[in-house]
């Protein structure tokens, strides 16, 4: 962490450990060496109020990077690769 504290705009990943799509995203974030805040959501849809608030739907993974909100695994991978130096 910088001496000035955490970055103002840390990426957020709404995540479910058992979700295979989320696992792909976690792996890619690690491969790219990116720091992010992992928000573990409840398995039950109707309890995922934070996900709905962030993205307007309840599926995970959801990646929030500043103004960018993505709720599809393929879109997230493509975004991370193009913005953060993947292949
Ligand atoms: N199209 C989405 C699919 C995501 C998806 O189906 N996620 C599952 C978890 S693996 C989910 O949240 N399903 C609702 C549920 O079963 O609670 C993606 O590729 O990211």
Description:
- The structure is a single chain.
- By secondary structure, the protein is α+β, with helices and mostly antiparallel strands.
- The protein has helices at about 20-30, 50-55, 75-85; strands at about 10-15, 35-40, 60-65, 70.
- Strands 2-1-3-4 form a four-stranded mixed beta sheet, sandwiched between helices.
- A hairpin with a 2-residue loop joins strand 3 and strand 4.
- The longest helix has 12 residues, at about 20-30.
- The radius of gyration is 13 Å and the shape is globular.
- Bound molecules: glutathione.
- Glutathione binds near residues 19, 45 and 61.
Described by strand count, sense and barrel closure, the largest sheet is: 4 strands, mixed
Instruction: Indicate the percent of residues in helices.
Output: 25-40%
How would you sum up the global shape? globular
Name the CATH architecture: 3-Layer(aba) Sandwich
Indicate the multimeric state.
single chain
DSSP E strands, number: 4
Low-confidence stretches: none
> What's the CATH first level?
Alpha Beta
Let me know the average pLDDT: 92
Distance between the terminal alpha carbons, to the nearest Å?
27 Å
Q: Report the radius of gyration as a whole number of Å.
A: 13 Å
Q: What is the H level of CATH, i.e. the homologous superfamily? A: Glutaredoxin
The SSE order reads EHEHEEH
Structural class label: alpha+beta
Count of helices?
A: 3
CATH fold naming: Glutaredoxin
| Portion in beta strands | 15-25%
The small-molecule ligands in this entry are: glutathione
